[in-house]
Amino acid sequence: MDSALIPEGAKRCSFPKFTIGIAIVGAVVLWGVYAMFLCWFKGLNQTNMNDYYGFALWIWADLAVIAVGGGAFFTGLLRYIFNVDELKNIINFAVIIGFICYSSALLILAIDIGQPLRGWFIFWHANVHSMLTEVAFCLSCYFAVLTIEFIPNILENRQANKVPFFHHLAHNMHGVMAVFAATGAFLSFFHQGSLGGVAGVMFGRPFAVREGLLIWPWTFFLFTWSAAAFGPSFTLLVTRITEAVTGKKLVKDNVIHLLAKISGWMITTYIIAKIIDTIYWTYVTIPSLGFKISHFYTNNSFYGYWILITEIIVCGLVPGLLLINKSTRENPNTRLLAIVLGVIGVCLNRWVMVLQIMAVPVMSFDTWALYIPSWQEMATSILPIAYGVILISLAYRYLPVFPQELELNQPKADQ
Amino acid sequence: MFPFCFEWIWDISHGIFFGGLWYAVAILGAGMTYCIVKAAIDTMNDNGESDH
Fold first, then answer.
1. A350 vs A357, A370, A395, B44, CA distance in Å?
2. Looking at the domain assignment, is residue A343 inside a domain?
């Protein structure tokens, strides 16, 4: 039925089967959209946010998708600026994943602000002393970059590419993609960093505050570094899931190994910096503010030392070492374990930097404030995942996302 | 916000924030304009290169 739109030579499932799959995931999307409209029409009383949790599950989801979406800017930087040629075979998919992550982040923010019709206020009535203003500027511009990077792939659709103007446009956009990629890297450096900077400058919250360089706390650099480190791991993870679902090999091993190696070294160097930061915070920053580290990990039912050990050792040091070691990197099982742990690790880091910060008592009369999100918050946080599944399914079906797909699946294609 | 808006103040903060924003928007706008105009010219001349 839609065979004229499918890339030439590529095998895809039947249209009814595809439609059923989309319909199932679409039901989850509708659930999320229903919750989203509840928040818009009835207000933020639909959430469990309160005076303690002005930043809640949405902001964690926002920071997490932005962190794992960092694979797009870092892979783009390596491909277009540092000319790492092998990455041309995975850059399309990295861009699509980034596009999904950043459009999801903007959607979450549109729900979070309660009145999305006033979203433009941040550009017109900007608070030019806020790191979050910089985040909003960079996020919007970087989403534009990702859209621009995604357009040539859409225009290479079998039918669209027959239109001469679209064909030339895609060709010309490829020609100047390095300019867009460089702009994207510039924007990403600042908004990833500023998201960390927001936590680091909160001098009223000893759990978050850090020293730094000039106006930038160390968390600024750690956030950018972690996004560049774990983002490629997320790209590899989604690629692996796509291969498992489609039953096809989509990217050659040498490309996977290279990206895994880059991610591994980035994770390892990041985690060394993170350990140094944590030690300095423990022995210098916290005592100077009149606290002990035990204040942040005891006397409550959830946040214990386990979260620190899990984030830094289990989901930081372990995946880093697994990926820089050639034998474990090239073993599909240990590589998969490493990238799964890595993705969990960066999401856990964002959880700690958004939600644990809010939970820790600050005043002597305060107690731990634990928080359970409402179903509306959960539904709207799951919405981006379902939306991502649909967009990846559509892109895989109709666009030439993986340049090596036909070559890698030649025997099957001939049957 | 633009410098002719009543809220605008000529200070370093506005300069850095909005300078950065307009700089990025200008690069993206100029890049896309170049691609679209060149694609239109290429289409009219039909000197298409088939691969990229």
1. 10, 16, 29, 51
2. yes
pLDDT of residue A115: 84
Q: Is pLDDT at B11 greater than 60 in this prediction?
A: yes
Return d(Cα B29, Cα A145) in angstroms, integer.
Answer: 10
User: Can you read off the two tokens belonging to residue A228?
Assistant: 């560049």
The secondary structure element, H or E, covering residue A212 is: strand A212-213
Residue A414 counted as domain residue: no
Distance CA A50, CA A349 (A): 22
Distance CA A143, CA A184 (A): 9
Token pair in block for residue A194: 């500023």
Q: Could you tell me if residue A115 is inside a domain?
A: yes
Sequence-distant (≥ 6) Cβ neighbours of residue B50 within 8 angstroms:
none
Size of interface A-B (CB pairs under 8 A): 77
* Rounded (5°) CA angle A405-A408-A409: 85
CA dist., res. A349 & res. A337, Å (int):
18
**Which chain A residues have any C-beta within 8 angstroms of a chain B C-beta?**
123-126, 128-129, 133-134, 137-138, 141, 144-145, 148, 164-165, 167-176, 179-180, 183, 186-187, 190
A131-154 per-position pLDDT tens digit: 889 899 999 999 999 999 999 999
> B interface toward A at CB cutoff 8 Å?
1, 5, 7, 11, 13-14, 16-18, 20-21, 24-25, 27-28, 31-32, 34-36, 38-40, 42-43, 46, 48-49, 52
Q: Can you give the CATH number for the domain in which A108 is found?
A: 1.20.1630.10
Judged on CB neighbours under 10 Å (0-12, 13-18, 19+), B2 is exposed
CA-nearest of A10, A66, A111 to A408 is A10
Mean pLDDT of A179-188: 93
Rounded to two decimals, the pTM is 0.94
Domain span including residue A295: 15-403
Indicate yes or no: CB of A165 within 8 angstroms of CB of B31. Answer: no
Asked casually if ipTM beats, i.e. exceeds, 0.90, the reply is: no
Report d(CA A394, CA A6) in Å as an integer. Answer: 10
Two tokens, residue A27: 């039901």
- What DSSP letter does each residue of A48-84 carry, written as one string? ---SS-SS-HHHHHHHHHHHHTHHHHHHHIIIIIS--
CA distance B19 to chain A (A): 11
Q: Which secondary structure element, helix H or strand E, spans residue A217, and what is its range?
A: strand A216-217
Query: Residue A5's closest CA among A168, A172, A162?
Result: A162
Q: How many structural domains does chain A have?
A: 1
